[in-house]
Amino acid sequence: MNVSDFFIQRLSEWKIERLFGYPGDGINGLLGALNRSKKIQFIQSRHEEMAAFMACAHSKFTGEVGVCLATSGPGAIHLLNGLYDAKMDHQPVVAIIGQQKTTSLGSDYQQEVDLNNLYKDVASAYVQMIVDPAQVRQVIDRAFRIAKAERTVTAIIIPNDIQEESAVMEPPRKHGSVFTGTGHANHTMVPLEAELRAAANVLNEGKKVAILIGAGAMHAAAEVQEIANILGAGVAKALLGKTAIPDDLPYVTGSIGMLGTKASWEMMEACDTLLMIGSSFPYAEYLPEPGKARGVQIDLESKMLSLRYPMEVNLWGDSKDTLRALIPLLRQKDDRKWREDIAQHVSDWWQTVEERAKQRANGVNPKYLLQELSQLLPDRCILTADSGTAAFWYARNLKIREGMKGSLSGNLATMCPAVPYAIAAKFAFPDRVPIAIVGDGAMQMLGMNELITISKYWQEWSDPRLLVIVLNNRDLNMVTWEQRLQAGDPKYNASQDIPDVPYGSFAELLGLKGIRIETQDQVQVGLLEALSTDRPVVLDVLVDANVPVFPPILDNTQLLNFSKAMLKGDSESAGVIKQMIRDMMRGN
């Protein structure tokens, strides 16, 4: 057994069943060992960045450690964006990276990159290069244990000559040797009794309690609903917490922020108490004004407490366990006027959303597309969204039902994760239907490449359905709207216009199903066909770039900037103003 064989065996002992990567001669030893072992599935992406996204998504959807593999130099560099996505969304991912021979390091050798320095930020919790076969065991064990325990990215660098040396499965029992073992430790984190009582006092005294949940509340759905009912509170959801609880609950106000709902904005403006659970939502302008609401926060990482809002009580602990300990200390609120007001705002908002979605547009109104999709979503489907307007309509128009999963790039907000996220979801749950919502910019950047990955593997899946919906508006639309609302500048056509690509036809070339939708009358039929076919589908939908991408409430600065942009000669001003008037006529 050589080092590579033992390396793969150790991964298997950590219960790793699948890794995502792209080959290169810097990892040939590991690839040979994977081939000999047959215990771990190697999923070949089209690009190392996509492999890192897949590893991140695997962690998000399964709770397990994700693993990606890349060669030295350029391969290692390509991983970085996907790894930062995992780091910033607090997902455990281990990156395994090849390196040039140890004898060549320091000589400016071909593809020699100082990987320790390159990775010292993204894998700041643990990055280590193996320079002796006796290190393999402890480096792997440390990388996996730290990634899981700290919910972060770790990295293992292994030169290609070390990969081929004889394995040292058990280091010599002498000074300087380290003996490690496998396995993750489970634990319960609950704050001190005095802190729980202090939090309960704040929440019991509050008359208008607002709850904000994020990804840290994903495993605490029952507890969130119970505490919301005791306190008569409404619940807003940060994007990464969108699927934590269903949207059909009358007190769930939906998403928050620029991509959020008016009901969430109204609740935050009027509340006198804020309970934040497992969220690092960053935008202060969408939270209560400091001093106007008392605050309690629950977070698994103490460094995140009181980071976004000056909390009166900070509870360092797991959200589920902390809520379970907190609930017996709370008093049922008999006055339900606040809850009734929230439910009315939620009802009014969804009515507005539905009315606005019915508006005709140049091609397809993206709101209508997502509204129709929402009604047709399969049970237990897994939703992924790209950054930009894809995330906007995902946040606004999709109603989550119990049992669904969903995610996107939350804190990095990078382009291109939706398709690789969906692929990783399909491998983890082959009996469920992943649906990726992608802008045409992200599709052209890297998304189209991963259709090739889908074509490579889809016939292995027990249920072959996977849907990629392309919002084809020939515009880098989110940035276009940011130019108008934030900078007061008209659309800069040279930077914003992109080609009209026949995404469905490209899918057909790969043996997938391609459907093109050009009018709203075709939407329902197209969606039904896409969700019932016998293979993955790319739905190419020509949507109107001029449908307004506005926050729930436009402030004076944004209104002024928008007016300036239109007056400066925006090339789409006529269409934009037309759609804006239509929206205004359908509710504010």
Explain this structure.
- This protein is of the alpha/beta class.
- Helices cover 41% and strands 15% of the residues.
- It has 22 helices and 18 strands.
- It has helices at residues 3-13, 28-37, 48-62, 74-88, 115-118, 136-150, 160-163, 193-205, 221-231, 262-270, 319-326, 337-357, 366-376, 389-397, 418-428, 440-457, 477-485, 493-496, 503-509, 523-532, 556-567, 573-584; strands at 18-21, 41-44, 66-70, 93-99, 127-129, 153-159, 209-213, 234-237, 252-255, 273-277, 294-299, 313-316, 382-385, 405-407, 434-439, 467-472, 513-517, 537-542.
- A 6-stranded parallel sheet has the order 2-1-3-4-6-5, with helices on both faces. The chain has a 6-stranded parallel sheet with strand order 9-8-7-10-11-12, with helices on both faces.
- It is globular.
- It starts with a helix and ends with a helix.
What is the fold's blueprint, element by element?
Elements: H1 3-13, E1 18-21, H2 28-37, E2 41-44, H3 48-62, E3 66-70, H4 74-88, E4 93-99, H5 115-118, E5 127-129, H6 136-150, E6 153-159, H7 160-163, H8 193-205, E7 209-213, H9 221-231, E8 234-237, E9 252-255, H10 262-270, E10 273-277, E11 294-299, E12 313-316, H11 319-326, H12 337-357, H13 366-376, E13 382-385, H14 389-397, E14 405-407, H15 418-428, E15 434-439, H16 440-457, E16 467-472, H17 477-485, H18 493-496, H19 503-509, E17 513-517, H20 523-532, E18 537-542, H21 556-567, H22 573-584
Parallel strand pairs: 1-2, 1-3, 3-4, 4-6, 5-6, 7-8, 7-10, 8-9, 10-11, 11-12, 13-14, 13-15, 15-16, 16-18, 17-18
Helix pairs in contact: 1-2, 1-6, 3-4, 3-15, 10-12, 12-13, 13-14, 13-20, 15-16
